[in-house]
Amino acid sequence: MPNSDFSLIPADQPFAVLAALFAIALFGFWAEQKSWGKMVTGTVWAILGAILASNLGLIPKDAPAYGFVFTYCVPAIIPLFLMHADVRRIIAESGRVGIAFILACIGTATGAILAAGMLDVGAQEAALAGIFTATYTGGSVNYAAVIQSTGFDDANIISAATAVDNLMSAVFLAVIAIMPASKWLMSRFAQRNHVLENVEEESNGESQVTGLSLASAITFTLVVVALSDGLVALLNSGSDFDYGRLRYVFITLFSVIPATLFPAQMKKMHGGQTIGLVLAFVFFAAIAAGADVAKLLSVAPILLGFVIILLIVHFAVVFVGGAIISKLARMLSSNDKEPALALSLPEIIIASNAAILGATTAPALAVARGWTGLATPGVLAGVAGYIVGTPLGLAVATLLS
User: Fold this and answer.
1) Is residue 2 part of a domain?
2) b/e string for 1-32 if b means 16 or more Cβ within 10 A?
3) Mean pLDDT of the chain
4) Could you give the CA distance from residue 15 to residue 97 in angstroms, rounded to a whole number?
5) Facing residues of 190 across strands?
6) 326 and 343 Cβ atoms separated by less than 8 Å
7) How would you write 292-334 as a 3-class SS string?
8) What CA–CA distances, in Å, run from 81 to 99, 276, 294, 345, 377?
9) Would you say residue 215 lies in a domain?
10) Lowest mean pLDDT, pick from 9-13, 200-204, 231-235
11) What is residue 180's three-state secondary structure?
């Protein structure tokens, strides 16, 4: 096993690291076109490729270039995915994703409580349960907030918990990305088309990508993020509330308003979602690269067990609960159409993704799987997780203490 601090590509060479991330993304796109790679998505291949590359010492597990991806690429992904998101069609979709997200929150909190009861992770057990509840309700945005709120200050355990979080998040993302390949699983839930019409046209080659369309898409994305950050800064001045937690709410709002009010003009920005998809693959690779398997096995096996139990319970509550709701809705329906409350597997997957990984990966996975109609609901569910994750995590910590 190579030294954990060594990598063939040095962490202080940002262009080399970025080249590696884009190469991994390229591998993901290439693999899903092959007969042997079609069983899973390019997302999964990118995740697995990054985990393998980082743990073999080919790329660093941590590097400033990853910070660049998280800081600058991730916010830009959201408007690129939402520039064709007409709210008039999405409102109905968001309701069902919201129901699934409530199940996801219940599953996470229940899983943390059960894991704490089954395993002894030491004197800081209550705080750790709260931390993992928070991070698996709205992603890592809530991670630091609960650490600070609980006064947790053991750097070694925090480091090990971070390694566990990175690895299991990547594994969980890979698992839920594979699930739609099962026709049996898909049949257990409602059957719906989650593809936006204008995206279908673009994918069929009916729209032409030009320099003008790409420049328009990129400009739109940067303006949306700039306006959102400017609004956050304005609201934060003289306020005790951190409006930065609502950053993705503002990004979503500024993206969908023109998409809803001026759909014809927005449709001319051809190629924007393709750019977003490439950046999403790079983002997945950057996440997975931080999964330090060696540190995990040597330092944190008990934490690994804790998170596995939590995710299994989360998985059971979300997907079994979703299947039960769908079956009951079908039984009570008096016609052949799918009842409004019946959940589809894609809706549940996006809600679960939003809870475990936050508002950034949910729309990325939705577009990667072709469920473009679920991109905005995924963001909204993830933003809801940002809001409820910290109080839910603190509630679990208080209950167990």
Assistant:
1) no
2) eeebeebebebebeebbbebbeebbbbbeebb
3) 82
4) 38
5) 344
6) yes
7) CHHHHHHHCHHHHHHHHHHHHHHHHHHHHHHHHHHHHHHHHCC
8) 23, 6, 35, 21, 12
9) yes
10) 200-204
11) helix
Length reported for the chain:
401
Instruction: Examine residue 53 and state whether it is found in any structural domain, yes or no.
Output: yes
For the record, the structure tokens of 331 come out as 């039984």
Rounded Cα gap, residues 150 and 129, in angstroms: 11
Nearest in space to 225 (alpha carbons), one of 81, 368, 43, 375: 81
- Are the C-beta atoms of 87 and 376 separated by less than 8 Å? yes
Structural domains in the chain (count): 1
pLDDT tens-place string over residues 169-209: 888 888 888 888 888 888 888 888 777 655 444 444 445 88
Q: CB–CB of 386/139 below 8 Å?
A: yes
Residue 394 lies in domain: 14-400
167-205 burial string, b = 16+ CB within 10 Å, else e?
A: bbbbbbbbebbebbeeeeeeeebbebebebebbeebeee
What tokens were used for 109?
Answer: 């909190």
328-362 burial by CB neighbour count: b if 16+ within 10 A, else e? Answer: ebeeeeeeeebbebbbbbbbbbbbbbbbbbbbbbb
**Rama region for 151: left / alpha / beta (φ>0; ψ in -120 to 50; rest):** left
What is the per-residue pLDDT across 374-400, written as a single tens digit (0 to 9) for each?
888 888 888 778 778 878 888 898 898
Closest listed residue to residue 372, CA positions, set 177, 191, 194, 180: 194
> Residue 150: inside a domain, yes or no?
yes
Q: Look at residues 231, 293, 258 and name the one whose alpha carbon lies nearest to residue 1.
A: 293
DSSP 60-122: -SS-HHHHHIIIIIHHHHHHHHHTT--HHHHHHHHHHHHHHHHHHHHHHHHHHHHHHHH----
Which residues, other chains included, contact 206 with Cβ-Cβ below 8 Å and sequence gap of 6+?
Answer: none
**Three-state secondary structure readout of 45-58:** HHHHHHHHHHHCCC
Residue 311: closest CA among 132, 99, 145: 132
Q: What is the DSSP letter of 339?
A: P
Which stretches of 158-238 are assigned E, i.e. beta strand? none
